[in-house]
Structures are given as C-alpha cells and as structure tokens.
Amino acid sequence: MVDEFYLDVNLELFVQWLFGNKNKYDHNILCTLKSNEPYGKTITFNYYNISGSIVIWANGIIEEQIFDDEENLLFYLHYKLVSLAQGQKLFYDFYDSLTKHTKCPPLKIILCCSGGLSSSFFANKLAELISLKHLNYEIIPLGFYQLNSSYLDCDAIYLAPQISYLEPQAMNIVKNTVPVHCVTPSVYATYNYRGLLDMITNENISKTKENGTI
C-alpha cells in the first residue's frame, strides 16, 4: 500500500515537472498535455518535422517515442518509474534526441550588390562550399533595388563593398529588424568564399532561440 502511494506521488510529480517546464523548452516546441484517465496521461512535443510523446501510464510504466514527418520511429524507450530523478535523467536523453533529429529551416542570407550580377556569381560559389560543409544556410543574391520587397523573410543582409555606402539606407529599409553587414573588399573582390562563410558563422546568426535550462 505504501509503495502504491509513492508510485502515485512520483507519477504526478513527474507529469507536473515535464509539463510545468514547457516554457523552458525550445520556444518552437509545442507541448500539450492530454489526460487518458484512468489509464494515464500523455504529453506531446511537436517540433518542426518531429513529433514526440511521453505516455505516463497509471501502473508506473513510462513510454517515450519520437517520429519524423514520414512516421519513421526514431526513438523508443519504456521503463518503470522508480524515482523522479530517474525519470528526469531519461527525459533529458529524450529531449536531446528530439532536438537533434529536427530539420530546422535554413538561415536565409541575402547577398546584395548594385544590380545582382556579381552577388549571383558569388552566391553560387558560396552555395557549393555550404553544401560541402553540410551547413544549413540559404544564400539569396539580390540587387539593392530589390531589397525593399525581399528582406522580410531573411535572417541577415550582406552588402557588397561597392554599395557599402548604402548601409544606412538598407538599415532604414529593414527598420533594424534584420542585421545588415558590409563585406570587405579583401573578401569580396578576391572571391574569398570561405572568408564570407566565416563572417556569417562568426556573427552567430541564429533563427532559433537558445534552448532554456531544464
């Protein structure tokens, strides 16, 4: 009877801990709680192309599973909950797997020159390097005149050196909602694709919010 009491307490504490920390998970994770009384409760985690669930059965069995958008099973674990600390440790493994398998949208980088000609050539070569390195960037070449209608869906704008004097105008166009950077002549004029890629990486551009501490 005592064991059953502690089992019920641990199960309820585990549910409250899992769902109560939802604001500390990555902000793109949609976390929902569903009661299946008297059989148990289910917490789901939807994250881009990944769906995860943790079923807390009334008999103390926990089932963790993760599927991709094609319903392929990526992760499955079931165990008997013996303590809150044990459940928390196993949840961290579940959470790491959930975020690791996610295919986040690419970071969209606009490379802008006066008419779009040199930026198109540069962008094509840069895309080849990005592909070789398996990076999640999309490079979009534009002429400066196109910037007004195209900046809303990007993560950063890089201006070719010949139009660097237009940086204040570019910042006014985007109203400081998108970072604007100027590529140096030593990078752009020498077709130093790796140099620009290093600039993008070192700027720490991120489309997703940093994960909270859970």
User: What about the largest sheet?
Assistant: 5 strands, antiparallel
- Percentage beta strand: 25-35%
Mean pLDDT over the residues: 87
The topology string of helices and strands comes to HEEEEEHEHEHEHEHH
- Principal-axis shape equals elongated
Percent helix, as a range, is: 25-40%
- What is the topology, as strand order, of the major beta sheet? 1-2-3-4-5
Straight-line N-to-C gap: 33 Å
* Low-confidence segments: 206-212
By helix and strand content, what is the structural category? alpha/beta
Task: Compute the number of helices.
Answer: 7
Radius of gyration: 24 Å
Can you tell me the number of structural domains? 2
The number of strands is 9
Protein name: PTS EIIB type-3 domain-containing protein
Keywords: Kinase, Phosphoprotein, Phosphotransferase system, Sugar transport, Transferase, Transport
InterPro entries: PTS_EIIB-like_sf (IPR036095), PTS_EIIB_2/3 (IPR003501), PTS_EIIB_3 (IPR013012), PTS_sugar-specific_EIIB (IPR051819)
GO molecular function: kinase activity; protein-N(PI)-phosphohistidine-sugar phosphotransferase activity
Layout: helices, strands, pairs:
Blueprint: H1 2-20, E1 30-35, E2 40-47, E3 50-57, E4 61-67, E5 73-80, H2 84-100, E6 107-113, H3 117-133, E7 137-143, H4 147-150, E8 156-159, H5 167-174, E9 180-182, H6 185-188, H7 193-202
Parallel strand pairs: 6-7, 6-8, 8-9
Antiparallel strand pairs: 1-2, 2-3, 3-4, 4-5
Helix pairs in contact: 1-2, 3-7
